[in-house]
Amino acid sequence: MSEVHAARRSWLRARCSAGNGAAVVARPANVRYLVGSAPPGAALLVRAAGGDVLLGHWDPAESPGGPLGELGGPRIVALDGEADPVEAAVALAVEEGAGEVAVEEHDLTVARHRALLAAVPGVELTDLGRAVEGRRVVKDEDEIAALRAAGEITDRALGELLESILVGRTERHLALELERRLVDHGADGPAFPTSVATGSHSGLAGHRPTDRRVEEGDFLTVRLGARFRGYRCRIGRTFVIGTSPADWQIELYDVVFAAQRAAREALAPGVECQAVDRAAREVLTAAGHGKALGPVTGCGVGLEMGEDPRLGPTAMGRLGACVPVTVEPGVHLPGRGGVRIDDTLVVRPSADGGPELLTITTKELLAL
Questions:
Q1: Counting beta carbons within 10 angstroms of the beta carbon of residue 271, is it exposed (0 to 12), middle (13 to 18) or buried (19 or more)?
Q2: Where are the alpha helices (DSSP H) in 20-137?
């Protein structure tokens, strides 16, 4: 990947003002995209004149070499004490003749931006904006392979859980077990905090596991994802605990499943992001659950959850090929519970078979 990272930095270098411009990137996912692994809080300095520099605090027990030390990689600067890598990068850029330095203003607090101006008097700061995030939207095949592996790990962990006894166990215990299984199968860790919701909690999008125990007749909603080589995926499934679901559970599940299928089938290069959201929202609205769907039906995934594009009613833009997204509609009925069905897919043209499903655990309403 070192050649890939070098090409990405060359793209960013071309955006810098000719001759004396520079850019400082500090958002962790963007640093990883441009150089590979880096210590937490590191900052990357890219200059129009060349000679990239990665500044950060390395663990004394670890060498800052490895892939980063390869020919053509950025020069490594290990900082002492509590030095701010962004301040150090901006100061170095000015010291070496940069006329202006572009920074990621959206990722800097007001206090940190003021500290930069105070620490480097006279510096001309400009806004890099979300240029790197925009570049990250379309994935190359190596990135998609990492996402595919993350999906396989996630499916495996979830499949093993479904083979175990669930009644009587707490949401918190099940979530911890799922995260352990992700790591056991090769994940760097969970892509986001695992959610297990049972009974009246089921179907809630942002539910944090509690000590509520799984009981017969409950809906059980599970949302998890693996992080593999930095890349993240999401899967969400809903099950019924017991011998068979109640009529209202079957009806609600069928509605959410139909909404999710409509959104998945709408995924194609050139389709408006709004149209994907509308496909799901119209199904739920027709069934009387239109207000239950959250602000978006899905989002982009990669080095972060919640990347661009957003699949929502006010979303701008169109989908492109090789863009991975989630499709995750859900309905929660207060006091009763609900259903969520989430998948991670890669947008592909119909000539290539249409959207590629990365999370393949069955969407059949299983009674566990």
A1: middle
A2: 28-35, 85-95, 110-119, 131-136
Structure tokens at 85: 């890598």
**Alpha-carbon distances, residue 171 vs 120, 163, 222, 232, 348 (angstroms):** 50, 16, 9, 22, 36
Question: Quick check: 357 and 343 in contact, CB under 8 A?
Answer: yes
Written as one string, the DSSP assignment of 154-190 is HHHHHHHHHTS--TT-BHHHHHHHHHHHHHHTT-SEE
Q: What is the rounded CA–CA span in Å between residue 310 and residue 328?
A: 12
Q: At what angle do helices 28-35 and 2-15 cross, to 10 degrees?
A: 120
Torsion, Cα 90 94 100 103, to 10 degrees, reads: 0
Convert the pLDDT of each residue in 328-344 to its tens digit: 999 999 999 999 999 99
Closest listed residue to residue 6, CA positions, set 58, 71, 57, 65? 71
- Write the pLDDT tens digit of every residue in 38-81: 999 999 999 988 789 999 998 766 656 555 555 568 999 999 88
Query: Which candidate, 308, 146, 142, 324, places its Cα nearest to that of 230?
Result: 146
Strand order in the sheet with 219-224: 195-198, 219-224, 235-240
Tell me how far apart the alpha carbons of residues 360 and 343 are, in angstroms, rounded to a whole number: 8
Bond prior to 39 in cis (omega within 30° of 0): no
The Cα 208–Cα 179 span in angstroms is: 14
In contact, 241 and 202? CB cutoff 8 Å: no
Q: Pick the closest to residue 304 from 29, 5, 33 (CA basis).
A: 29
Nearest to 113 by CA among 129, 96, 125, 101: 125
What is the distance between the alpha carbons of residues 123 and 93, in angstroms, rounded to a whole number? 10
